[in-house]
Amino acid sequence: MTTSSSDSAPVFPDVPLSLVRPAILSGLLVVVAVAASAYLGHIMFGIWMFVGLALSLANAKLVQLYVQGITAEENPRKRPIIVNSALRLAILTVVALVVAFVARPDGIGVMFGLALCQVILVLNTVIPVMKGLRTQS
User: Fold this and answer.
1) The whole model's pTM is what?
2) Peptide bond into 10 cis (omega under 30)
């Protein structure tokens, strides 16, 4: 973290906002997961994993769009973001749990897809930021 003068705010590296890289990586992982699950005789696990990855990417895009809308307001507030996030995550959780329960045992793949995509999204943000912080030092 660097500052341009003693009283200015810290300068942070740009955080990648594009979901193209995570979508490509998720797509590649889905191909591997479907192939591996088909080989093991549980192709639906891989397909449900794809559904989980797709839900997680859609959630990330909805977060971006909603935050852009709120921050564009003249006087942005936290409460609408909190309510929207809680509602989105509750719906996503209910959908994933229903799929996992109704399509068991392979339906649990949706949970794996959600978790894997979250790891990909976090790494997509953290790695460039860490590289940027390292170059600023």
Assistant:
1) 0.79
2) no
**Residue 56 — φ and ψ, nearest 5°?**
-70, -40
* Cα 57 to Cα 26, 49, 85, 116, 137, distances in angstroms: 9, 12, 15, 11, 33
Mean pLDDT of 34-39: 93
Instruction: Considering only the C-alpha atoms of the chain, give the largest distance between any 2 of them, rounded to a whole number of Å.
Output: 62
CB 19 within 8 A of CB 61: yes
Is pLDDT at 37 greater than 70 in this prediction?
yes
State how far Cα 117 lies from the chain centre: 5
CA–CA–CA angle 134, 116, 40 (5° rounding): 135
Average pLDDT over residues 18-41: 91
For residue 2, give every residue at least 6 positions away whose Cβ sits within 8 Å of its Cβ, in sequence order, or none: 10, 11, 136, 137
Under 8 Å between Cβ of 137 and 74 = no
